Amino acid sequence: MTYTPHKPPIAESPDELRKRIPGWGVDLDAKDRPSVPKLQFQEDFTGAHWEFPERQPEKYPRERSVEHGMLTPVFGIAQPPSGVAGAIRRYAYTYSEGRTAHWLLLIAADRVDAWEHHLKSFLTLRPDNPITETGVKAEFTHNGLSSRFGQNRADVKHQWLDPVIVGGPWIAAAGIVYSGARSVARSLSLVGSDGHRQVH
Amino acid sequence: MRVEEKDRPKTEHPNDAIVRVQLAAICGSDLHPHHGMMPDTRIGHTFGHEFIGVVDEVGSSVRNLSVGDRVMVPFNIFCGTCWYCARGLYSNCHNVNPNATAVGGIYGYSHTTGGYDGGQAEFVRVPFADVGPSTIPDWMSDEDAVLLTDATATGYFGAQLGDIVEGDVVIVFGAGPVGLIAAKSAWLMGAGRVIVIDHLEHRLEKARTFAHAETYNFTEYGDIVLEMKKTTDWLGADVAIDAVGAEADGNFTQHVTSAKFKLQGGSPVALNWAIDSVRKGATISVMGAYGPLFSAVKFGDAMNKGLTIHTNRAPVKRQWPRLFEHVRNGYLKPSELVTHRIPLDDIAEGYHMFSAKLDGMIKPLVVPSAA
Question: What is the predicted ipTM?
Answer without folding.
Answer: 0.95
